[in-house]
Design brief:
transferase; ATP-binding; alpha+beta; 6 strands
Length: 156
């Protein structure tokens, strides 16, 4: 595990779309999925794998998040995806809402698993790491980043 901060934060924005429907139904870990054009526009230095940071919905409420960028080898995906798990329980689907992400740290590379239980166990570990890392003051300050409220940073 390498949970160091990235050289600089990455900022991503998009509308939540329907994914493969595995997060909630099969894994019990719901995800917010971003459209392919957002994934295709990700910086090349953002390696495949699992990251943590902050997410806002509709430029309002801000939450801790963990995300995966990659091919999901366990499911043999043919398209790269970006799936965000927000560390909050929502009573409804989030489809169509704008999600803004400040990606701050790298947890691990994308991996394959021999069974779904191993995958779930590793995702829960990723969530725990993200939760702890975001409590640290050096990354916690990004929760107040103006980008999450809809103001574009000057260096983007």
């Amino acid at each position: 595990m390498n949970n160091n901060k990235l050289a600089s934060p990455h900022f991503v924005v998009g509308s939540i779309v329907k994914g493969f429907q595995r997060g909630s139904k099969e894994l019990g870990i719901p995800t917010a999925n971003l459209p392919q054009e957002v994934i295709d526009a990700l910086p090349t230095e953002l390696e495949l794998g699992v990251y943590y940071g902050w997410a806002s919905l509709n430029k309002k409420d801000i939450y801790k998040m963990v995300l995966n960028v990659g091919w999901n080898p366990f499911y043999n995906n043919t398209k790269k995806s970006l799936e965000v798990h927000i560390l909050h329980k929502f009573p409804h689907d989030l489809y169509g809402q704008e999600i803004r992400l400040v990606i701050l740290g790298y947890i691990r590379p994308e991996m394959n698993f021999s069974c779904v239980d191993d995958l779930i166990r590793e995702i829960k570990n990723d969530i725990s790491i993200a939760d702890k890392e975001l409590e640290k003051q050096d990354v916690g300050g990004y929760k107040q980043n103006v980008f999450l409220k809809g103001i574009e940073p000057q260096h983007l």
